[in-house]
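Friendly challenge for the regulars: who can give me the C-alpha cells for this chain first? No prize, just bragging rights.
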Amino acid sequence: MPNRIRILPDEIANRIAAGEAVERPASVIKELAENSVDAGADRIVIEIASAGKETIRISDNGCGMSRDDALLALERHATSKITEFKDLSRLRTLGFRGEALPSIAAVSRMVIETRQKEDLEGARVVVEGGRVKDVSTTGRAPGTTLTVHGLFFNVPARRKFLKANDTELRHITNAVTGLALAYPEIAFVFSNNTREVLNLERGDRKSRVQAIFGNDFGEDAIFVEQNSEGVGIWGYVGRPEQARKSGAHQALVVNGRWVHHKGITFAIQDGYGGLLMKGFQPNFSFFLDVDPSRLDVNVHPTKREVRFADQRTVYRAVAEAVRVALRQEDIIPEVGLGALEPAVIPPEIPAIGASIPTAPAQPLQAGLVADKPIDVAEDFYPSRSTSLDLDRQMPLPLNVRRADKTADVAEHRAAGDIDQQLAQVSVWQVHERYILAHIKNGIIIVDQQVAHERVIYEQVLNSFQGAPGTGQHLLFPLTLDFGLKEIQVVRDAMPLLDHMGFGVRDFGGNTVVADAIPVDLTVWDEGRLLREIVGDLLERETEAAIPIGEGDQISPLEHRLAVSYARHTAIKSGDLLSTPEMQSLIDQLFATREPFVCPRGKPTVVKMPLDEIDQRFGR
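First reply, four minutes later:
Bragging rights claimed.
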C-alpha cells in the first residue's frame, strides 16, 4: 500500500510560504524595505508602477551582498540575522526568518543587483517563479536594487483578489510611512508611476512625526517621555478635542518595529481618563523601547504584532505616562481632598424627613405637556425590533394638506390660536428630532437627520454625473496641511470634490489650498469639514462597486465621499424646523431612489397604520 504522507516539492512549498508572508504589494515592499534597513542603508528609494501590481523596485545604499550571498539568500531559512536559538531572545533586526526573499521570488519575476563596497563589480541574479534563470556581473554603486515584476503572475487566483489600485496604493503608503516613522535617521523616497508620493529627508523623531502626520498634529500634540519599569516611552499624543472616530492618526513603534497592539492602544486611551468622547480615538505616535528578551516578535506571519512578557507592566507604564503628560498640560484637573467642603443645604429646602408641601393639582391646558412624561412603553407596548418592517414601508403617496406658509405655530402661544393652527397643519416636529405627517391610512414618523442625509447623499451622487459644480469663492483662500496618508486621499478625491462645488488645489508636498465651497454649505468651519471627510475616507472602505438602482453603479470612493458629506452637513437632531421646511424635507425624501433607508443603513421612515392606532385605543 503506497504511503499517503509525502514531502511537498519545493515549488509548491515556496508558493504556500508566499501565501503567508506575501499578501499584497504592500507586503512585498515592507519585507524588502526592512531588509534595506537591516543592511545599514541611510537612503531607501521605492518606485512602483500600477500600485505595485506591475513593478516594484527598491534601491538602497546599504552593505550589499556578494554573488554567493545573493544566491544563498534565495534559499528558504537562509539569513544573516541569527545563528543560534538564543539569538531570538535578543533580536535587534527587523528580519530574522529568511523566508521573505524566496517567498517573493516564488510568485514573481525578480532581478537582484547588488555590490559590496569592497568588491570591484556587483552581481546580477534573474529569478522567475523561484527558479534562477541567469547570474552575471554588473557595474553599480555599493548597495542593492531589487526589482519585482508581475507579482502573482503564476498564481492567478491570488492576483485576482488584489484590490483596486487606489486601495493597494493606500496599503503601500501605510507600510512605507510606518517604516519611515520608525527610522527617522533614514531618508525615504517613494513614487508611484513616476509621481513622487513622499520624500522624507533624514532627521529626528519630532521632524518625522510632523512630516508624516502634518504640522497641526506635530505642533499641537502633547509630548510624552518617561522611562519606567524598564520601559522607555517617547512620543506624542493629540489633545482630546483632536480625537477622531478612526485610528488613522495612530502609530506604534516597538524596538524599531512598526506594529499594531490593541493593549497599548487601550493603555493610551486609559491615560485620557474620561476626556475622550464615546466612540472617539486619540491621535498618537508612540515609540516604546524594551529589553528584547521581554519581547516576542515571532507571533505573526508578517511580524505586525508583538507580545510582551509582562504586558501589565507595560500597560501601567504607558497609561501613567500619558496621564502625567496630560496633567502637566492642565488638561486633566487635579482635585485635592482638602479643597472639598461639605455641601450647604439652602434654608429654603426642607430637611430630610420633613413634610414637603404639595401644590394643588392643576388641570392640563391645551398645548402644555407634563414636565415628566409618563412611561407607558413597558406596560402597554410590546418590545419591537429596531430593524425596519418592510410591510410598514410601502411607498404610499403623501396626503398632506399644505399649511399656510406664512404662519408658524411658534408665533402663536394662546390656546385658541394653537387650536386653530393645528386644524390647518398636517406635519409636526416632535422633540426637535422626528416629523409626524399624515398619509392616506395612518401617519408616518420621519427621522429628520437621517432623512436629510438620504436627500443630500443623492444630490451629491447626481453632481458626480454632471459637469463640475459652481461653488462660492472664499474671500481668503485657506491653506490646509495634511498627513501623508491623508494627502493621498485628498488627491484621489479632488475630481469628485470639484463636481461638488469645492475648489481644492494641490499646493505641493502635503498642502492643498481651498478657494471655493458649495453654494449652500453652512458648516465649512475653516476647513474642519474637509478634514472630517478625509478622516472618514481613511476608514475601512467598501471595495466593490455599489448599485444605486436601475442598473447604475457608483465607485466605492464616490459612495464614501457622498456618505461622509451627507453625515456632516445634514440637519441634526435638535434643530428646530419650520412647517415649510418639514414639508420640503418630506417631499425631497420621497423623490429619492431609496426614501426608506439612509446611506448608512438606518431607517428614515416608520409607518403607523390607522388600524393599529385604532387597536391601541380599543376601537
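Residues 193 and 279 are 38 Å apart (CA to CA). Residues 206-328 form a domain with the Ribosomal Protein S5; domain 2 fold (CATH 3.30.230.10). Your move, everyone else.
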